[in-house]
């Protein structure tokens, strides 16, 4: 009888512990997340914050700062999909909207979605003209455009290099074909300089194109 009673008490204790764990409040999860974040344990912090989100009372306003911190933890462990998701939510909650926009762009960049990155950053520049992050947004756009400019520039160089002794009479046609690529490169270099006026690569591309087209 004592054995049965002991087993019964043990089962109730285990069930009680499980129930208590399941009943942990959203606030407790947030506190755990904050502790883990301070310790730079971003993976654990992310898990705690997401548990808090899942346990959140739908009748209460969401903690915008926690959502932003959740995004930051996801970014720190290179989980770009979750970073993008939570930074978008942070922006919707009007919390650090400019910073969230910048990091949304960076998440798209890391995911190889350059068109989406460009769209987000251009929107951010227009939406937050006085943000201290405006410089970062412009810098990233400059990198984006100058990379494209360089691709067109190298295409033009490759076309010019098709000239050999046997096709000298075709030089004008080759040069015109290269000019089409150089015009694209020039346009993108100008876009680069619009956002990053001192971009050396863009300035070099424009100078080299001018020299080549004069030769």
Structural write-up:
- The protein has helices at residues 2-22, 26-38, 42-55, 64-76, 80-92, 97-110, 114-127, 134-160, 171-195, 200-214.
- The radius of gyration is 28 Å and the shape is elongated.
- The protein contains 10 helices and no strands.
- With 215 residues, the protein is mostly helical.
* CATH topology value of the largest domain: Serine Threonine Protein Phosphatase 5, Tetratricopeptide repeat
Total count of strands: 0
Number of structurally distinct domains: 2
Coarse morphology:
elongated
Unreliable sequence segments:
1-12, 17-21
Let me know the CATH homologous superfamily of the largest domain. Answer: Tetratricopeptide repeat domain
Just give the CATH class of the largest domain.
Answer: Mainly Alpha
Give the overall pLDDT as a whole number. 90
Assign a percent range to the helix content.
Answer: over 70%
Q: Which class best fits the helix and strand makeup?
A: mainly alpha
Beta-strand fraction estimate? under 5%
| Main pleated-sheet profile | none
Q: Which architecture of the largest domain per CATH?
A: Alpha Horseshoe
Radius of gyration over all CA atoms, rounded: 28 Å
What is the count of DSSP helices, taking H or I runs of 4+ residues? 10
SSE pattern, N- to C-terminal: HHHHHHHHHH
* Amino- and carboxy-terminal Cα gap: 104 Å
């Amino acid at each position: 009888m004592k054995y049965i009673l002991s087993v019964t008490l043990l089962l109730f204790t285990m069930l009680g512990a499980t129930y208590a764990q399941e009943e942990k409040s959203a606030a407790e999860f947030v506190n755990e997340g904050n502790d883990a974040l301070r310790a730079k344990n971003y993976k654990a912090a992310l898990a705690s914050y997401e548990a808090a989100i899942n346990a959140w009372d739908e009748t209460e306003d969401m903690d915008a700062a926690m959502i932003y911190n959740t995004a930051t933890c996801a970014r720190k462990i290179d989980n770009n999909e979750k970073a993008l998701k939570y930074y978008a939510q942070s922006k919707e909650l009007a919390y650090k909207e400019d910073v969230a926009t910048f990091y949304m762009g960076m998440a798209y960049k890391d995911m190889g979605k350059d068109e989406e990155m460009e769209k987000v950053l251009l929107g951010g520049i227009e939406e937050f003209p006085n943000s201290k992050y405006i410089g970062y947004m412009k810098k990233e756009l400059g990198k984006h455009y100058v990379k494209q400019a360089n691709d067109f520039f190298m295409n033009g160089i490759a076309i010019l290099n098709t000239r050999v002794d046997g096709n000298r009479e075709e030089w004008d046609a080759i040069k015109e074909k290269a000019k089409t690529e150089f015009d694209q490169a020039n346009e993108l270099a100008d876009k680069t300089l619009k956002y990053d006026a001192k971009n050396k690569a863009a300035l070099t591309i424009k100078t080299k194109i001018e020299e080549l087209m004069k030769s």
